[in-house]
Design goal:
Distance between the termini: 6 Å
Strand content: 25-35%
CATH class of the largest domain: Mainly Beta
CATH architecture of the largest domain: Sandwich
Number of domains: 2
Strand order of the largest sheet: 4-3-2-5-11-7-9
Radius of gyration: 29 Å
Structural class: alpha+beta
Shape: elongated
CATH topology of the largest domain: Jelly Rolls
Number of helices: 3
Largest sheet: 7 strands, antiparallel
Length: 241
Amino acid sequence: MRTTRDVLVCVARSWKFTRVLSAVALIAMAMPVRAVDILLFNTGVSSIGTPLTAGAIDPHWQLVAGPGVSTPMPAFVVNNQHPFGNYFETTDSRWIWVNAGGTVSPGGPYTFRLQFDLTGLDPSTATLAGSWGIDDTNGRIELNGATPTGTGLALVPTSFDNFNLLHAFTITGGFVAGINYLDFTATDVSNPGGLNVTALTGVASAVSAIPEPSSVALLGVGLAVLLTLRSLKRTSANGNS
């Protein structure tokens, strides 16, 4: 027959069990979520990120809107990356435009698009950053057809600084699950024209159901403690019955 002391011991152990279980749950929730790099490409680079040669078709950026554009068209790496001694230069991007000559009937706006995928990632945690320049004016950045939350999203009015200096930008909102569309728009006042997007990076948190190895190990320790306490509880109960 159990004594009052035995009952109190069982209650205490049950209370400890509950505390450990709660602690394990809190630790699991507090584990950092894995940040994943978003696959992005600067203008005028190959599938491995190396700059393309003059006149090459950009495999990632498309011309999707502008005078005479009815369907998406390839964007081209312009032949002259420093017309009249202008245009900033980078080691990880190239200037692109409607054609390799960088010449087209002045006007616009022309919109160039990069598609990227957030499948398996939480869009509410996504961020993008980079730098850009245009020749000439009315530059703006849109995400999924709208102005996103961010900074450095417009380049106006017409200025030599628009294409001779790098302009940093960040995007912190406006992402959606799955496929996203990043658009850069520019109007060409006089030939040539160009767009350069460089140092483009992005991260987002994973939404995978598979826990991180460190989380699995930590939960394993917690479960081992729980099993030990329950075993001790059963042993005590059998010895006092």
